Amino acid sequence: MWNGELLDLDAYLDRVAFTFDPAADRETTLRGLHRAHLAAISFENADVRDGVPLRLDVESLQDKMVARRRGGYCFEQNLLFAAVLDRLGHEVTALGARVLLGRTGAIPRTHAVLRVDRRWVVDVGFGGGGLLEPLPLVDGATARQGDWTFRLDHADDTWTLRSFQNGEWFPLYDFAETPWTPADYAIVSHYLCTHPASPFLGRLLVQRTDERARYALTDLELTETRPDGAVVKRSLTPEELDAVLREDFGLDLPVRPTATG
């Protein structure tokens, strides 16, 4: 299903600067790969913003994020990572999540999450301050990852991922264990790329999370958010944007198309 055999594993490992330790167990390697991917490949929606069609096959994902050293959004990132894990012999199940970020009500499942080896929640594509490492799929599982702390709760067949921010448990997203397929992801991705209500249309979104903070760029506004609730905002000039993309997010994005005629 994940076409890991089509992946150039050596090129991917070079892209994320990860070297296998032959003495490490599978869990340690999985955690290391998860961190390496997040550190190297930022969340970004430039193609969606610009109306460039997204292709989610392994060859296209590898060309974009590995060969051209771009980033991607959740479906791109987690489908590439699924191919990597499949190539390494892991059992990967696609799941669909509802992005909460403190919201309630009727929210569609528009986020990709992976279940790995039936015991790990894996997600390298959540721009909203998500996991740095896999989290055990266990009710009440809690983990400190850098300055962030995450907890996974289970009720009524639904798992909810929370992070401890500003003194309280903040819901990031929830998901069920009903398996999805790459085709399901493609349908939802098409919706997010084309529907007028999509949050990814009409603006540039670039994000990454490290040990101490989440960094989010929305057009020309750069925001740094820390787990204790501290927020620092900075308005960029158009001249500063390219430098911030390169130095803070590791990206050299294509020039945005302009209308002609």
TrEMBL record:
Tell me which InterPro entries the record gives: Arylamine_N-AcTrfase, Papain-like_cys_pep_sf
Segment forming the signal sequence: none
Which SUPFAM superfamilies does the UniProt entry name for this protein? Answer: Cysteine proteinases
Q: Which domain of life is it from?
A: Bacteria
| Family (UniProt) | Belongs to the arylamine N-acetyltransferase family.
Q: What is this protein called?
A: Arylamine N-acetyltransferase
What is the protein's species of origin?
Answer: Saccharothrix hoggarensis
